[in-house]
Amino acid sequence: MPLDISNAVSIPDEELELNAIRAQGAGGQNVNKVSSAIHLRFDIPNSSLPEFYKERLLNLKDSRINKEGILVIKAQQFRTQEKNREDALARLLTLIKEATVVQKTRRPTKPTRNSQKRRLDSKTKHSKTKSLRGKVRNSD
After folding, report:
1. What pLDDT, in 10s, does the model give residues 95-140?
2. Helix then strand then coil, % of the chain, to nearest 5
3. Fewer CB atoms inside 10 A, N or C side of the chain?
């Protein structure tokens, strides 16, 4: 079953390489016997994704993407292989969707007259407060 990214874009199962490996960390006797962690490998340059998606993914500063453009996700959060597989696919989907979001360009705006007045009033008040903290001088 292909991984759907949007209505028009999906990744066929043949392009995803899923390997079961032994999980790290605590887990008692079970951790040494069962391969419950999942290694997901996805070759970005050779995938069927549109060029826009590939370009955005390869420009990411992500340590999971190596020099050849292969994305490696290791999922070992859960005890079962199936849940770790779902987690790895969900993380891949999230990464692709986040990479393709185009940021709005910021248009600089002028501060309103009222906001400028409030700022200056607050500075004046702060200045008066500070001037009152000075040494008390005798007027003898």
Report:
1. 888 888 888 898 999 999 999 999 999 999 999 999 888 777 777 6
2. 40, 15, 45
3. C
